[in-house]
Amino acid sequence: MLRIAPAVGLFAAARLTGLLLMSAWAWHIGRRPRAILGRAWDADWYMLIAEHGYGRVLTWPGAVQNDLAFFPLYPGLVRGLSYAVPDRITSGSVGLLVSWSAALVAAAGIYAVGERLHGRRTATVLVLLWGLLPHSVVLTMAYTEPLLTAFAAWSLYALLTRRWLWAAVLAVLAGLSRPNGIAVAAAVLCVVAYELVRGGRGDPRLWAAAALAPTGWCGYVLWVGFRTGDPLGGYFAVQRGWTSTFDFGAGAARVVRDIALRPVALPLTMALLIVLVSVVLFALLVLARPPAALLVYTGVLVLITIGGSGFFESKPRFLLPAFPLLLPVAVALTKARPRAAIAVIAALAGLSFGYGTYLLTLSPMAL
């Protein structure tokens, strides 16, 4: 564990710096940082579920926002931990504690994956890059991306080290965390299927892992379906109420056309740039021929992000758990001259801190 500490320390320092800069600006303009971090946008939905359970529905022109769209593990953890802390500590503060803890666990898992594949230096750079993405400010909010990434990173590590049941259990938890948590189960199923084909049919752990991995995601989707009276389609109807569907990129293409033809808010332009860069990074990852687990996991996340319609400005956030996209950059920076690597990291830090502050305090669009 000691070898992980420097990387996790760098990650924590990066996010703490961004948090302090954002907080200073928020106080300057008369806003409360804790309210921004713990109750803004989707965080408020999660906190209300933690406080009151499911059942909130808001109706807008062209949209019906049902809280059943939000997966249960994160608000469940917040609710459970709230019973163990003094009453004066709000659910938003508890949510931040869960998210910050999950972000540190995720950083450790990312390091473990990077070290196994490319050694300690590359793993450390990989963790630091993840903490300096333009949207990494989300990792300090009461959102679910840190939780999903924590389960995903350690599940991938378990696959790399052939711990099939651990990988499957973590895939279950990932599937209960976010809709795109299905990417972890997909990675487990593909790797297990390959092992079975190779001759592992006599290993009961492989069969158990294959049966277990998708149960978290599928279980919640079915539960929502039965609750809404449509077992197989109810969850997807709820998502359509949020204008969120998988349309093979048709909705995203319309937004891209609008960005190209008329002035739009900065978050939309940045979202487009980040998605395009992510596609390039995925191509580089494929060329690097990583283990199948990482390739399947990342590919499913990229596919869901590009192929889904809905809130285009949120797509960079959906890609935060896709940390293997950063592997080609981490390898290149490790091999680069120290001065060049430091310059790149400093530029990323400036972008991350500045843009993160803008997103939380000035942006007119939800994350």
Automatic annotation (TrEMBL):
GO cellular component terms, semicolon-separated: membrane
Keyword Protein biosynthesis among record annotations: no
Name this polypeptide is given: Glycosyltransferase RgtA/B/C/D-like domain-containing protein
Transmembrane residue ranges: 94-113, 125-144, 164-194, 206-226, 264-287, 294-312, 318-334, 341-361
Subcellular location: Endoplasmic reticulum membrane
A GO BP entry: GPI anchor biosynthetic process
UniProt entry keywords in alphabetical sequence: Endoplasmic reticulum, Glycosyltransferase, GPI-anchor biosynthesis, Membrane, Transferase, Transmembrane, Transmembrane helix
Broad class of where this protein is predominantly found: endoplasmic reticulum
Pathway(s) this gene product operates in, as recorded in its UniProt entry: Glycolipid biosynthesis; glycosylphosphatidylinositol-anchor biosynthesis
Gene Ontology molecular function, alphabetical: alpha-1,6-mannosyltransferase activity; GPI mannosyltransferase activity
Topological type in the membrane: Multi-pass membrane protein
